[in-house]
Design goal:
- It is a single chain.
- This protein is α+β, with helices and mostly antiparallel strands and 403 residues long.
- It has one domain (9-401): Anthranilate synthase (4-Layer Sandwich).
- The chain is built from 8 helices and 21 strands.
Length: 403
C-alpha cells in the first residue's frame, strides 16, 4: 500500500534479517523471512527462478501501487562459480520501497505472509557504532598475488586467452558481531551513485548493473578499465582523459561490452550499444562505462533473474574467452570467491527486477568479514599497478566497517 514519506530507507531497518537495494535514496529494503530457497551448483539460477515463478504464480497479490518492486518481491545473492558456493533467494515479510520519477516520488510498504496483515509501524533506528576491527591478508599476501598476476600475463601473452579477471580477499576481524546497518548506512551515504545491497550476509556498493528488466526495457551497465583517484580534482580530470585514451583499458572494456551485447541480443530487439564508453567518476576510482539497452523480444518471457543467469559471468568479472578464463581463475586465483562477483539484486512477481554484480563487496559472518576486489588482466598488465588498483577497490567496504 502507498504510504507517506517515513524517512531514509536504511534507517527503517531492524537488526534482524535486513535486506537492502538502495541507490540515490531510492530502492527497496525489507526484513523478516516469509520464504527462502538456497541453491547450489550449475543449476542454481534455474532452480531459484523456477521456484520463484511457481511461488509468484500461486500467490494472492493485492498491489494498489503497481510499480516495479511493489507487491511480491524476492532478494537474491548468487555464487560466482558452479562449485563451491551456496546461493540464496529470500522473500521478506516486510518490504518498504521508494521510487522517484519525473512526476514525483512514490513510497509503499508490502507485507508478505500466509495471510494478509496490517502494515507494521515504521520507525527509524540507530545501529550501534562499529566495533574495533583489525585487517589482515586473506588467501594470499599482496606479493603472492602479484606473482599470480604475472603468471596470468605470461599466459595471455602466449596466446592462450585474451583477458582474465583475478580477485583477492582481505579479512577483517571485528571485536564484536557486525551490525549490518552500520556499514550499509555508510556505503549509502558515501557512494550514492552505486547500488548498495545486503542479502544473506553479502554486503556491498556495486557500480555495475548486470541487468535491469522493467516493463519490456532491458539495461546493462558495463564497467571495465579502472584508474585510482588522487583526491586532486585537476589531476583526476587528467587521469580520466588518460583512461579514456588507454589502449589497454579500452581493449579490456571492449571485451566486456561485447560479451554483454551478444547475450542480450538473443533476448532483445532494438539493441543500442554505444561506440565509445564514458568515464564514470566514483569517490575512490574511475571506470570506463557503457550502458547497453534493448527491448525484450515479442514472446520472450525470460525473467530478470533468467537474464542475469544468461549474462553471468561477463568478461568484466571472468575474462575472454569466458570459459577458458573461468577455468584459469579456478586454477591460479587461490581462493573461493563465494558470492563475490555473482549476481545480487531483486525480482518481482512480473519477473522485472534489478541485478547488479557483487563488487566492492564483503561476506559478513558474525565478527568476521571477507572483503573482495578484482582486476582485469590483459597483455601488458603490470602486477604492481594491479595490486594498487585492488587496494583502491577495497576502500569502500573497508572504510564502511571502521569507526
Amino acid at each position: 500500500m502507498a504510504i507517506p514519506d517515513p524517512g531514509p530507507l536504511v534507517r527503517l531497518l531492524p537488526q534482524q534479517d535486513p535486506v537492502a537495494w538502495v541507490r540515490r535514496g531510492a530502492g527497496l529494503v525489507g526484513w523478516g523471512q516469509a520464504a527462502r530457497i538456497e541453491t547450489t551448483g550449475a543449476s542454481r539460477f534455474t532452480a531459484a527462478d523456477d521456484w520463484w515463478c511457481s511461488l509468484a504464480a500461486t500467490a494472492v497479490v493485492r498491489d494498489e501501487v503497481d510499480l516495479p518492486g511493489s507487491g511480491l518481491v524476492a532478494f537474491g545473492s548468487f555464487a560466482f562459480a558452479d562449485e563451491p558456493g551456496t546461493s540464496s533467494l529470500v522473500v521478506p515479510e516486510v518490504v518498504v520501497g521508494r521510487r522517484v520519477e519525473s512526476g514525483g516520488e512514490h513510497w509503499w510498504v508490502t507485507t508478505i505472509g500466509p495471510s494478509l496483515s496490517a502494515p507494521p509501524a515504521l520507525r527509524t533506528t540507530e545501529p550501534p557504532a562499529a566495533p574495533e576491527v583489525v585487517f589482515s591478508d586473506g588467501a594470499l599476501t599482496g606479493t603472492e598475488w602479484e606473482t599470480v598476476v604475472a603468471d596470468a600475463v605470461r599466459r595471455i601473452e602466449s596466446g592462450s586467452i585474451d583477458k582474465v579477471v583475478l580477485a583477492r580477499d582481505l579479512v577483517a576481524q571485528c571485536a564484536a558481531d557486525v551490525d549490518i546497518r552500520w556499514p550499509l548506512r555508510r556505503l549509502i551515504e558515501q557512494y550514492p551513485t552505486c547500488w548498495t545491497f545486503h542479502v544473506a550476509g553479502m554486503l556491498g556498493a556495486t557500480p555495475e548493473m548486470l541487468v535491469r528488466r522493467e516493463r519490456g526495457l532491458v539495461t546493462s551497465r558495463v564497467l571495465a578499465g579502472t584508474i585510482r583517484r588522487t583526491g586532486d580534482d585537476e589531476h583526476d580530470l587528467a587521469l580520466a582523459g588518460s583512461l579514456a585514451r588507454s589502449s589497454k583499458d579500452l581493449e579490456e572494456h571492449e571485451y566486456a561490452v561485447r560479451s554483454v551485447a551478444e547475450v542480450l541480443g538473443q533476448h532483445c530487439t532494438g539493441m543500442n550499444v554505444p561506440e565509445s564508453p564514458f568515464v564514470l567518476h566514483l569517490p575512490n576510482v574511475m571506470h570506463l562505462a557503457t550502458d547497453v539497452t534493448g527491448v525484450v523480444g515479442a514472446g520472450d518471457s525470460t525473467t530478470s533473474l533468467g537474464l542475469a543467469a544468461a549474462l553471468h559471468p561477463t568478461a568484466a568479472v571472468g575474462g575472454t574467452p569466458t570459459a577458458s578464463a573461468v577455468d584459469l581463475i579456478a586454477e591460479i586465483e587461490g581462493m573461493d570467491r563465494g558470492r563475490y562477483a555473482g549476481p545480487v539484486g531483486w525480482i518481482d512477481a512480473a519477473g522485472d527486477g534489478e541485478w547488479g554484480i557483487a563488487l566492492r563487496s564483503a561476506d559478513v559472518r558474525g565478527d568476521r568479514v571477507r572483503l573482495f576486489a578484482g582486476c582485469g588482466i590483459v597483455a601488458g598488465s603490470d602486477p604492481e599497478a594491479e595490486l594498487a588498483e585492488s587496494q583502491a577497490k577495497f576502500v569502500p567496504v573497508r572504510d564502511a566497517l571502521g569507526r
